Amino acid sequence: MLADSFSLDAATRHRLRLLFLATALLAASVITGWLRPDQPGIRGALALAGALIVAIPIVSGLVTAIRSTGFAATQFYMDQYVVLALAACLATEKYLTGGIVAIVLVFGQILEERTTVGVEMALAKLRQLSKIRARRKKEGELEEVEAAELIIGDEILIRPGESIPADAKVLSGSALIDQSRITGESVPVEVGPGSEIFAGTANLNGAIEARVTGAGGETVMGRVQSIIEEAKHSEAPIISLAEDYARYYTPLILLIAASVFFFTQDIERSIAVLVVSIPCAFVLASPSAMVSAIAAGSRMGLLIKSVRHLESARMIDTVVFDKTGTLTQGKLELEDTLVHSDEFDAVAVLRIAAAIEGNSNHPVARAISNAVPAEDRPPVGDFTEHSGLGLEGLVDGHRVRIGRPSFLEKSGITLGIVPADFVRHSLVLLAINDRHVATFCLADSIRPEARETLSRLRSLGITDFIMLTGDRAEVAQHISAHTGIDRFQANCLPEDKLIYIRKLRAEGRRVMVVGDGLNDAPALAEGDLGVAMGALGNDVTIHTSDVALMSNDLRRLPDLLLLSAKTVGIINQNLLCGFAFIIIAITMSTLGWINPIAAAFFHEFSAFFVIFNSARLLRFDGMEIQTESGFEPHELESPAVPA
């Protein structure tokens, strides 16, 4: 796969053929000069032919780059100086010098393109994942087809060790699925009937049958690939700033080259000034770092929509969190069981409750039924579901009712508790034979990495954390105490969150909003940086946020800020070094210490320095930088909070 990313396209092969032909003509010119020194015309004609041939890809690239935007437009700022230097050589009949300089520069450009492969490698891997074969069931038979041929509704078989060819829903079987290619998380996910699986992930151990729900560009993998492509061609403010200064740079260099010729009467010095002034290092400083950072982010499950979001992340000073699904797991769990009768113990009431709740798909019912294996539940008869209230049925010959406190009260059952005393929990009450015998306290657990995430963010200098939730104040207070968030706003509607964030920004805060991307979409859009949690398989989340976390790991938030800070730091290094290279090289050229050919090699050295410096971002690993900064990860308990 890596070899594929380095394979040459048709345009590159064409340029190489022209370079080899030009090199052969220039070599023939040199040999002719040795063998036939009395025939300068032939030597000059061969050198001129070689120079003109090598000029073809330069001029065509310049014309193409004029119409380009983003990263591709940087070629224009470099090629114009090559054309100027080549024109000066041709005008002064220094064909051999012009040809050699052009060959060095064009060959250097090809090598630069081959080494600037951060995003291209990421995209190549994504494309490779989409070029897999699938086993499709058709009329009871299995046929092997390309993944691109699958359509929604097709039934497919995925065997152990195979890649998932399309987004699908599992019909039968169970397996462990490795989603690290998308989310960056190494822990496999267990799937079974009803579970969603995604294209490009890997089936580790079990055979499963599934029905296709998305294929081609409509899969999660397809959308991620499209967004990374768009991000690669987007433009950050720091790149625009460099382009603004570039318009003054060209006239300045032409003035310097003309002044050098005026005072020295040495055209080679002027040509050398033009060659070393090619702002390759300066122009590549920002784009090369940005595309490498986007590639590093995608590897970690950070889907960055535009490079401007990557640049602005380092400026964040305030983080606003949603509660459910962000700071909490967004999934109800049974926290406590209270028994109000001497006839039953906690195990018995839970067994009865799980039996009747197992007949419902409601999230509250699943939280209780999951606490008891299906084989340990007694059978249920005469089952009735009272929508929005509770369930009723016969278990072991007993009339059982389970649901909200209001459901039991409407049934004429006296409650053994005062519901108002349980402000932190969602309550499910169990009545057997018209007697309230048990109360189940349900809660949503805090994400285990929440406190660690806030500690890491504080180590980066962020101290203002705010939680906005539509839940009760008691719930918000409980979460704040366990996560270390000092400020919270409870009972918030979506429009209340929007108003609050606008107020923060009006105060001059740089706000990052973290939510689930659905009900928090207005707030995500209003913040300076909107980060959506758990975007895997969620089309709305991917398209409404500035940055999407493909996993649910909050620790990717400080990784995002670290990546932003390191990227801007490397850009500043590139700009400083590029500027220093140009100043030193112009001085040396003016003094006649280097000729045009040496200037071409000097220029390529500066360009490769910038590219390889930016390529360091490809090795970015948030946990590695975390350790270097002295912050050590630690295990935290996951306290439960009310639903």
Quick synopsis:
The chain is of the alpha+beta class and 643 residues long. It is built from 24 helices and 23 strands.
Number of strands: 23
Distance between the termini: 46 Å
Based on Cα principal axes, name the global outline.
Answer: elongated
The percent range for helix content is 40-55%
Rounded to an integer, what's the Rg over CA atoms?
33 Å
Overall number of structural domains? 4
Beta-strand fraction estimate: 15-25%
Determine the mean pLDDT: 78
Strand order of the largest sheet: 10-22-21-20-11-18-19
Structural class: alpha+beta
Q: Give the low-confidence spans.
A: 1-6, 623-643
Largest sheet: 7 strands, mixed
Count helical runs: 24
